[in-house]
Design brief:
Blueprint (H helix, E strand, L loop, with lengths): L1 E4 L3 E4 L7 E5 L29 H8 L5 E6 L21 E2 L2 E2 L7 H25 L4 E8 L14 E4 L5 H11 L5 E3 L10 H6 L7 E7 L6 H21 L2
Parallel strand pairs: 3-4, 3-7, 7-10, 8-9
Antiparallel strand pairs: 1-2, 2-4, 5-6, 8-10
Helix pairs in contact: 1-5, 3-5
C-alpha cells in the first residue's frame, strides 16, 4: 500500500488528477537514525511527538479509489513540517512544558536537519500537487483534549481551520454539524496562525483545501480511526463535488 517511502515522508495510494490528497504533517512519531532528542521514550507516544490517530486514518482513507495520503515520516519533535524553516518552533526546544535538549543545535546542525527532512518533504509535496492536481486537499491533524500547560477543556469533536480561503470550510462545517458533532470554526486553533503547509501549497496556489483537527480521544483506537476515516472520506467527497 505504500507507494513511496523516504526519510521525510510516506505516500499511500496513487494521487489522481481531480482526486483527494490527504496531507498529514504530524502523522509519525519516528525518530530517525542519527537523531537523539534526549527525552524519555514514553513521551514519543504523546501528542507532543505525534498527532495521535491521524496516520491510521490517512492510511484507511487511502484505500478508497481516488484518495491518496502524503504523510510525514518523522516526529514533529525532530522537525515540525507545519512550520517555516526560519521559525524556531520547527526544531522545538520545548513542547507543552517538556524540554527537548537534543534540539539544542549549532546553526550548521540545524541546517543539516532541515535539509534532511523539511526541504525534501515540501519539495516532494509541491511536485506531487503539480503532477496530479487534486480536487481537494485534506490537511489532517489531531488535537489533545487538554494541554498539560492549561486547565482549559476543549469540547469540540473536530475543528476546521483555514486562512483566507474558506471555500471548503464553509461547505464542510454544516455537513459535520449535521452528524451531531461539536465543530470548532477556527478552534482550537486558528488557521490564520498555524497554517504553514496549506499557506505554502494550497493558499498560495489557489488550491482548495479542508484543514481539520480531530480530538485525539475520539481516534485513539482502531474503532475510532475506522469511524472517522469513513466519515472524513464521505465529507471530503461531498465537499469536492460542491466546491464553487
Amino acid at each position: 500500500m505504500i507507494a513511496r517511502e523516504t526519510d521525510a515522508y510516506r505516500l499511500f495510494g496513487e494521487p489522481k488528477f481531480g482526486g483527494i490528497l490527504i496531507v498529514s504533517d504530524h502523522a509519525s512519531n519516528r525518530v530517525p537514525e542519527g537523531v537523539d532528542l534526549g527525552i524519555a521514550p514514553e513521551l514519543m507516544d504523546q501528542h507532543i511527538a505525534v498527532d495521535i490517530g491521524v496516520g491510521a486514518i490517512a492510511q484507511i482513507m487511502a484505500q478508497r479509489p481516488g484518495i491518496a495520503a502524503y504523510c510525514a515520516h518523522v516526529s514533529r519533535l525532530v522537525c515540525d513540517l507545519n512550520r517555516g524553516d526560519h521559525q524556531a518552533a520547527t526544531i522545538p526546544h520545548v513542547s507543552d512544558g517538556h524540554a527537548i535538549p537534543g534540539n539544542d543545535l549549532t546553526p550548521e546542525a540545524r541546517e543539516a536537519r532541515l535539509a534532511r527532512f523539511h526541504h525534501p518533504y515540501h519539495g516532494a509535496l509541491s511536485q506531487l500537487l503539480n503532477d496530479a492536481p487534486p480536487a481537494l486537499i485534506l490537511s489532517l491533524h489531531s488535537f489533545t483534549p487538554r494541554l498539560a500547560t492549561s486547565d482549559e477543556a476543549r469540547p469540540w469533536h473536530i475543528g476546521v481551520l483555514y486562512n483566507e480561503d474558506d471555500r471548503a470550510a464553509r461547505i464542510a462545517i454544516p455537513l459535520l454539524e449535521a452528524e451531531g458533532l461539536i465543530v470548532g470554526d477556527q478552534l482550537p486553533y486558528s488557521g490564520r496562525v498555524l497554517n504553514y503547509t496549506m499557506n505554502r501549497h494550497a493558499e498560495a496556489e489557489g488550491r482548495p483545501y479542508l484543514g481539520v483537527e480531530i480530538r485525539q480521544d475520539l481516534i485513539g483506537d482502531a474503532a475510532g480511526q475506522a469511524l472517522w476515516a469513513n466519515r472524513m472520506a464521505d465529507i471530503c467527497n461531498k465537499v469536492a463535488l460542491n466546491l464553487p
